[in-house]
Amino acid sequence: MEPNLDEIRAVLKRTPRAIRELLDGLPEAWLSASEGPNTFTPRDVVGHLIQGEKTDWIPRARIILNEGESRAFEPFDRMGGEGIVRSTAMPELLTRFEALRVDNLKALDTLAITAEQLSLKGRHPALGVVTLGQLLATWAVHDLNHIGQIVRVMSRRYDSTVGPWKAYLGILNR
């Protein structure tokens, strides 16, 4: 399947609103739920998404469009949003993510990427050669992955609390 920019953009546009609906106004116990040491909490996910908006998707798309494989992408700091996460209230984190995403969607539109350009190649520092289409498809799936992660982590907080109904809750049995 070839990447479809309209489909990708549709997911990217909705992600901030979906995450706000999931997290805004929740007690801290939900926002700091985790699956154990060195795993993301819902709060951490928002910081990670903010970091990605600043340093990953659009900067890498521009590298592919302007320099191709001649310049490898900067490695992505998965934990780069950690500082902001600890010092900022969730409503402000959500607002920052929303604003950055709006700016990046405008930037994506400004790039006016054609179907032919989706096959242009860049160089990922760990994965090697990737295409612009793969990068943009990954951006959308990355969003969906983290929405799923938020829901999974929050669900597991009540793993033992649901009692025998756990047998019917697939999210707790994966």
Helix/strand-derived class? mainly alpha
Discrete helix count: 7
Q: Categorize the overall geometry.
A: elongated
Q: What is the gyration radius calculated from CA atoms? A: 18 Å
CATH superfamily: dinb family like domain
Per DSSP E runs of 2 or more residues, the count of β-strands stands at 2
- Please identify the top-level CATH class: Mainly Alpha
**Major β-sheet annotation:** 2 strands, antiparallel
The low-confidence runs, each spanning 5 or more residues with pLDDT under 50, are none
CATH architecture: Up-down Bundle
What is the terminal separation in angstroms?
28 Å
- What is CATH's topology name? Four Helix Bundle (Hemerythrin (Met), subunit A)
Q: Kindly state the mean pLDDT as a whole number?
A: 94
Number of domains: 1
- Strand line-up of the largest beta sheet: 1-2
> What is the percent of helical residues?
55-70%
Taken as a percent bin, the fraction of beta residues is: under 5%
Helix and strand sequence:
HHHHHHEEH
Quick overview:
The chain is mostly helical. It has one domain: Four Helix Bundle (Hemerythrin (Met), subunit A), CATH 1.20.120.450.
Task: Provide structural commentary.
The protein has 174 residues and is mainly α. The protein has one domain: Four Helix Bundle (Hemerythrin (Met), subunit A), CATH 1.20.120. 58% of the residues lie in helices and 5% in strands. A hairpin with a 3-residue loop joins strand 1 (121-124) and strand 2. The longest helix is centred in the C-terminal third of the chain and has 25 residues, at 132-156. The protein starts with a helix and ends in an 18-residue tail after the last helix.
